[in-house]
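Much of what follows relies on a compact textual record of a protein's fold. A record is reproduced here so that you can trace the correspondence yourselves:

. . .
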Amino acid sequence: MASGVKVTDEVIAVFNNMKVRKAQANEEEKRKRKKAILFCMSKDLKNIVLDDGKEILLGDLGTTVQDPYQHFVKMLPPDDCRYALYDATYETKETKKEDLVFIFWAPENAPLKSKMIYASSKDAIKKKFEGIKHEWQVNGLEDLKDRHTLAEKLGGSSVISLEGAPI
């Protein structure tokens, strides 16, 4: 079921910047890279836009943000839906990895209308986010509160650490 909602160019640009890791990026460019970002519906419900101020930059890590995963969880509104991209850094028994995770946040307390609009618009944003390996629909803080659930999504029992913390 399509809703006719459009994804703004700004949202697509953010996704493309998060997807492409520049090996030759200087320190300043690295600090400005997004670790996580939230997207929401525009006020007129016709576009998917950036959720102002709801982002974590790599430059924030270790300064204003100690635990990026917990900080990300706290950014999610308790009573409304959002889409999010989270750049997960994790380690398996074999190697270190970084993967983008597309998250559809639809908490139980969100208004029914909001849940319906976000659910019917999810395909519009997913089509623009080509190459996403991991998708996660989350319906409450219980699903998110510890790292184990995200680790499961990323690689099951082979994941031994997430964001530098052991699982």
